[in-house]
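Appendix B. Chain record.
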Amino acid sequence: HSFPTRRSSDLPKGLGIKTVHKLVTKLKDGEGLEYSIVEEGKGPKAKIGDLVAIRFKASYKGTVIDDCFKTPNAYYYRVGSESVIRGLDLAVQNMKVGDRWALKIPANLAFGEKGVKPSPGKPRIPGGATLEYEVFFEIYPGYEDDLLEVNDEKK
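Structure tokens predicted for this chain:
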């Protein structure tokens, strides 16, 4: 099963960061995550368990540590599945399809006090590191499939 994707060249350009706001979340461990809405989307919000496709660029003190804006395919994952760092997942839970956010993720919602050892092509991230992310909520395939099923039932 192949999911629809956009080429990197089709993605919105620019990162005009606005004022940074605290992310309001009812989760007690959501404290400390900061975001600004760079571009507002018009799509639906995802719920925990939904499959979503995001693109993101992560950096630490100005050094890019991960960037899937440059890859042909977006990063697919299930919301709430712990396959991305907690701060990124909390942000996606509050985003709409088409949203582009700038994030400042504290260590407690990223790699904690242990950090991450270097791996091929990836630098070491020290313990206690605050990370900066740009994230774009590209596609919500599960939602699009639901729409198709509803439309097909009416025929």
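Further analysis of this model is presented in Appendix C.
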